[in-house]
Structure formats: C-alpha cells, structure tokens
Amino acid sequence: MTEAIRILPTTDAAIDEAAALLRAGRLVAFPTETVYGLGGDATDDRAVAAIFAAKGRPSFNPLISHIPDVARARELALFTPLAEKLAAAFWPGPLTMVLKRQPDCPVSHLACAGLETIALRVPAHPVAKRLLEATGRPVVAPSANPSGRVSPTTAKHVAEGLAGRLALVLDGGPCAIGLESTVVDATGERAVLLRPGGVTLEALEQVAGPVITSESDPDAPTSPGQLASHYAPALPVRLNATDVKPGEALLAFGPALPGAAVTLNLSETGNLEEAAANLFALLRALDRPGLAGIAVMRVPEAGLGLAINDRLRRAAAPR
Ligand code: TXA
Ligand code: MG
C-alpha cells in the first residue's frame, strides 16, 4: 500500500501553510541547500518525538535547530569568539555549530538528547529561510529519510521514504550541495570537526586556524549518533574499486572502469562539487534488485572529498 503524500511547489501560500502546520505541531519536509529536512517545532517536545518516531531514529542522537539568522541563534546559544567568526564567514550556509545552550533556551531537551549543548544552523536556501521566518520558532530538521538510509536530495526521495509520516513536502527542486552540513563544536577556542560536510576542512581552517579532527587527535569527539552504518543502500557497497566484479553496478568518478552491469558517474570530469550534488541520488538509482552490489571508484580525500568519503564509508560499513 502506498500512502498519499502532499507535495507542493514553493509558492508563498504553500510556505505559509507549512509554517502554520509547524506551529500546530505537525511535521513538514522542506528543501535546504544541503539535503531535504524533516522539520518540526523545536520548542514542542511532541513534535520532536514525532520526528524521532517518523525516522525510526535512536533518541540519543540529537537534532539540529534551524533559525533564519545569527541574531536568532544568539538567543538560543552562548556564542564564543570562535562561533562569531564562523557565523560571519559561513552563515547562511552548510555549517552547523554546536554551542552551549542559553539558560533560558526554549528548545526541547529531547531535541538536544539531554545535552547542555545545542546544534544550530542558518540555512542558505531561500525557501528554508522564508519558512523559518514565517514559522517564527526554531525548527529541528534531520535529513528527511528513515534513519540509516540514504539522505534525500529531492522531494520525490522524501516521499519514497516517509510517505504517511508527515503533513507536507515543499518541493524546491534538487539540493545544490547534496551533502549534509559540516558539524563543528565551537564551544572552545579551537574548532572541533564533528562531521565533515558542505563546508570543507580547508575553508574552516582558513577562517578558524587549525581544526581538531579525529585524524589530528584520535581521542577527538565526533557527533553522538555518528553510527558506523548509515546512508546505507540495500545492496552491498564496495569502495575504492579498481575493477568491476560480475553483476556489479559501478558508481564511477572520472573516466569509468569497463564491465559494469550499470554505470552512473558522480562526475565524469572528476569535479568534487558535482560529485557531492550527485552522490545520494546516484546511490539510490543504483540500488536495484538483481544487482550483485555497488562498486565505487576512489574519490580523493580533499575538499568535499572528505565528506563524500565519510558518507561512502558509512554506506559500505557492516550493517
Ligand atoms: O545539512 C544538514 O545538516 C541537514 C539539513 C536538513 O539541515 N540536517 C542534518 O541533520 O543532517 P541530522 O539530524 O541528520 O544530523 C545532525 C548531526 C548529527 O550527527 C548529530 O549527532 C549532530 O548533528 N549533533 C546535533 N546536536 C549535537 C550536539 N549537541 N552535540 C554534538 N553533535 C550534535
Ligand atoms: Mg541524516
């Protein structure tokens, strides 16, 4: 049985309706420049609980609160000098900062998984910004997919995974970046990279100086809920392929290896931005019954390649 799902183009009327639904405690999926988010009122424990339920997400994994500007962010969290610098450089955009909650922060403790910190992001997508303005409250939004599966970069992807579990999807077309935001702990003097994403490590370091990563410091924390297996297609995924085995589909990068049952290319010219934007949609497209698995060619570990490889490693991790 396929459940009906309402998908609306992003007219002013649709955005206002979505905002009203959010204020009434309902869930709405909306586009951001990274991936589609499954939004709920961050100050409403029941809406937050409904998000965890809709995704089948372990509740110890905290959510990002989205706000339309840095002034609204300062009302929710204590800004360090580092946070001010990062906000000035990367907001609006694909950066999430983890900061200490303000003592009177109205965001649900469930959204923060009981932590004294909160993750904040000001998205750059005009529809997300308008929706946040119209809602007038912080909106928590994890990627709009069942927990552990491939993240959605179109409204159709959202419908495939979550039909029947939300009131409305705002269709803003495909996401420009295609990978989730970079998550940085900005509570201290030095930035700690918790999840690679749309802002590259190189760009962060230009603004914030040396960043602590799990590479530079094996004891460095990562985001709670950075579960090993994630973003997982149903088929097994084999990384750094230098050949194609019988029956395998190929996810190519640059000139494709020969011999695959089906080949899709992240970027024929080896462009990492193009590859990031294509990653989740192509993983979905190759995830078809009757194939032996998905072989993935090597993607360089630089720039957006860090985030792409992070997602690919999780897609390939033992389930
Ligand atoms: O691009 C994105 O960030 C998308 C769009 C919709 O904004 N959202 C997204 O949300 O990817 P989600 O829930 O899939 O990822 C949130 C990440 C998780 O890795 C979580 O552990 C981390 O942020 N996080 C949230 N709150 C945190 C906190 N207080 N401390 C450390 N990590 C936190
Ligand atoms: Mg996600």
From TrEMBL:
PROSITE patterns registered for this protein in UniProt: YRDC
Domain YrdC-like: 12-199
Localization in the cell: Cytoplasm
Statement: the UniProt record of this protein carries the keyword Zinc-finger: no
Substrates-to-products reaction catalysed: L-threonine + hydrogencarbonate + ATP = L-threonylcarbamoyladenylate + diphosphate + H2O
Binding positions (L-threonine): 34, 66, 121, 141, 181
Enzyme class (EC, first level): transferase
Primary localisation category: cytoplasm
Gene Ontology CC: cytoplasm
Keyword annotations: ATP-binding, Cytoplasm, Nucleotide-binding, Nucleotidyltransferase, Transferase, tRNA processing
Enzyme Commission code(s) on record: 2.7.7.87
Gene Ontology biological process terms from the UniProt entry: regulation of translational fidelity; tRNA processing
Residues that bind ATP: 57, 61, 117, 143, 151, 195, 231
A GO molecular-function annotation: L-threonylcarbamoyladenylate synthase
Pfam families associated with the record: Sua5_C, Sua5_yciO_yrdC
UniProt KW Lyase keyword: no
Biological role stated in the UniProt entry: Required for the formation of a threonylcarbamoyl group on adenosine at position 37 (t(6)A37) in tRNAs that read codons beginning with adenine.
NCBIfam families linked: L-threonylcarbamoyladenylate synthase
UniProt similarity note: Belongs to the SUA5 family.
Protein name: Threonylcarbamoyl-AMP synthase
